[in-house]
Design a protein that fits this description.
alpha+beta, eight-stranded mixed β-sheet, six-stranded mixed β-sheet, globular, binds zinc ion
């Protein structure tokens, strides 16, 4: 990792001059109600593997931003260091800095209501332990998942057990559509998302002034045991009021904005508004760098406006499931107006320019937040990034295609790179010009053109070096933590290759909850269409424990399924339990081994099933991103 260049120093100095540095309110807000810190504790798995620690972030104690970090991100990364147990108000507590997300605890009349039990059981249990050290010992009587992302439910079994829930001692609340979204959002494109998430969160980057400093929403993500217990109660109407253990909670659904299934809450007796992840202390993502279905900025803004209208006047404090609270009614209302208008402004101006014929890359250069918004820290792009969000809005309405037919069937990366480099006079000439531009600080272009050199010739070491250097400086200049992580991860892979990544079998509770339809949809995207050419297979599936029947049909190189049916002329019938299927998904056994052991009973032509299995791909996690795929790559 290299130092900041003079151009990067100048860029970060210039950025500093535009920032509302006098506004130190966030530090005060993040400290308020502090009881005890998590500090530099190590939270580990039962087998000793590290799950979470804030160790390694000591370098953030300095107020002065280093040259290698955007000054606004530096400040934000420092505020996100506030960690431990906090009292929000009477009977409302938060645990922050135990994960990327917050856990909120409300003290009911007889027990505790836990909101969002973090990603892993280990950090959730540690958070509860710190709470219980300071507050009366009471059982958890309810858990609320604000939304379907794993940083808001994964640690649930560190807080309550499935037995307690089954016995009716604990109720679990979630927004309508929670389970489908929670188990489904990362399945079909899961492997690609997992790989790209490595760039977004910078989880394998070293922490430091030249490495990972934050994620925008919190410091990092915990790496422990993720779990899921299905909700016992769903909020289905747009607004529902429930009394849980003596606490009145107004639930309001906010679907298809930050998450497919989400809710916010207002607690009248405490005058506390909990905005879940609909507001954060930054401009959120309309399209995370890991990839997702594009989110709806317009709906998002309306949810915030609605919350302001209905609860603003009656709120003394606003909390959320990331970052820190906002205190006093006046400031809560100002914050909600600011957040509402940041999403609305960017949405409307993007669409306005779109309708003038501008394309995403152009609009991203043109739209700047008005001063009245940009002087608020909470509109800054610490998680999402303004430019990327503008392109996401374009994508939501118009798609990837910019409308210019010259780009309708553009050459793919390697072919385009080879042609470009040749037209530009060959690699040596391009490299010489790119080095000149690097010296001038034109890193965006150098990153682009050096990437073309790498794609044209993956053996070009000088091109790798220059591409890495350019990405690194872009990372040092990025206000967005996720953009910084992506640039620095890219630089690292250009220099050292793809890091060794453990294979990921998925979250057992999530796999067990996967609807069979989704299971077969995922099996179908593993089908290698070339291997399947000309083949037909019809399989009846009978699941004896869940009493489900399916027909799986392969023809035309497409695998389709029909639930609640059995085909008369099927090649074979497979009889098994859902539990066996889950064991296979969790890589505890294989289809072949389960056939061998009789866990799967087959009648008919069992070899047709084996034939189908041979057509299914497995996905490598460490596929190349900043370099071209090796020419003898499988799965083409
Ligand atoms: Zn979250």
């Amino acid at each position: 990792m290299k130092d900041a260049t003079e151009a990067t120093r100048a860029a970060n100095r210039a950025a500093l001059a535009d920032l509302p540095v006098a506004d130190q309110q966030s530090f005060e807000d993040a400290r308020r109600g502090f009881i005890e810190a998590l500090g530099d504790r190590l939270i580990t798995r039962a087998d000793g593997r590290l799950v979470w620690t804030l160790q390694g972030y000591e370098f953030l104690s300095s107020e002065q931003p280093p040259d290698t970090v955007h000054p606004a991100l530096w400040r934000h990364a420092r505020v996100n260091m506030a960690n431990g147990l906090y009292r929000v108000t009477d009977r409302v507590y938060q645990l922050r800095g135990f994960d990327v997300s917050n856990m909120t605890i409300i003290e009911g009349d007889s027990g505790l209501i836990v909101i969002d039990p973090l990603i892993s059981t280990e950090v959730a249990a540690a958070a509860m332990e710190l709470y219980r050290k300071h507050r009366p010992a009471r059982p958890v009587v309810a858990v609320i998942y604000t939304h379907s992302h794993i940083d808001h439910f994964g640690g649930v079994r560190g807080v309550v057990s499935t037995e307690e829930v089954a016995a009716g001692k604990v109720t679990i609340w979630a927004p309508a559509g929670f389970m489908a979204a929670a188990v489904g959002e990362n399945v079909i494109a899961g492997n690609a998302m997992l790989r790209r998430a490595l760039f977004q969160f910078g989880a394998v980057l070293p922490r430091g002034e030249r490495g990972q400093v934050d994620t925008g929403l919190g410091k990092s993500v915990s790496l422990g045991t993720a779990t899921l217990i299905a909700p016992t109660h769903l909020v289905e109407k747009p607004v529902e009021t429930h009394r849980i253990d003596g606490v009145e909670i107004i639930f309001e659904l906010t679907p298809d904005a930050e998450a497919p299934a989400e809710l916010i809450m207002y607690y009248p007796q405490f005058r506390v508004l909990n905005m879940a992840e609909i507001t954060t202390q930054n401009f959120h993502n309309l399209l995370p760098l890991r990839g997702a279905v594009v989110r709806d900025a317009l709906a998002w803004s309306k949810y915030i406006g609605g919350a302001l209208h209905r609860y603003g006047a009656a709120s003394d404090v606003l909390i959320a499931q990331h970052n820190w609270p906002v205190w006093s009614g006046e400031r809560v209302r100002a914050f909600l107006r600011t957040q509402r208008d940041a999403y609305k402004f960017v949405h409307d101006q993007t669409v306005r320019l779109m309708n003038h014929g501008y394309v995403g890359a152009e609009i991203a250069e043109l739209v700047k937040l008005p001063a009245s918004l940009s002087r608020e820290w909470s509109t800054h792009s610490f998680y999402g990034s303004l430019k990327h969000n503008i392109k996401a809005i374009y994508q939501r309405y118009l798609g990837y295609y910019d409308g210019n037919p010259a780009n309708l069937d553009a050459l793919p990366p390697v072919e385009a790179a080879k042609k470009s480099v040749e037209y530009m006079g060959g690699a040596e000439a391009v490299l010489a010009k790119a080095r000149r531009d690097y010296a001038r600080g034109e890193y965006r272009w150098v990153a682009q053109v050096a990437s073309q050199l790498v794609f044209a010739d993956p053996a070009n070491g000088d091109a790798h070096e220059l591409a890495a250097d350019a990405l690194e400086q872009l990372g040092y200049q990025a206000e967005s933590a996720t953009a910084r992580n992506a640039y620095l991860q890219g630089a690292s892979e250009l220099r050292y290759g793809v890091p060794g990544l453990p294979s990921d079998a998925g979250v057992p509770d999530v796999i067990r909850s996967l609807p069979l339809d989704m299971y077969f949809d995922f099996m179908a995207v593993r089908l290698d269409g070339n291997k399947a050419a000309g083949k037909t297979v019809v399989l009846n599936w009978r699941f004896t424990d869940t009493r489900q029947d399916y027909v799986l049909n392969l023809e035309n190189s497409a695998l389709t399924c029909v639930p609640d049916a059995q085909a008369d002329g099927a090649d074979a019938t497979l009889t098994l339990t859902r539990a066996t299927l889950d064991e296979i998904s969790l890589q505890k056994t294989t289809f072949a081994a389960a056939l061998q052991s009789g866990q799967i009973a087959v009648t008919g032509r069992g070899e047709k099933f084996v034939e189908l299995l041979d057509m299914l791909d497995t996905f490598p996690l460490g596929f190349p991103v900043v370099e071209p795929r090796p020419s003898r790559s499988p799965s083409r």
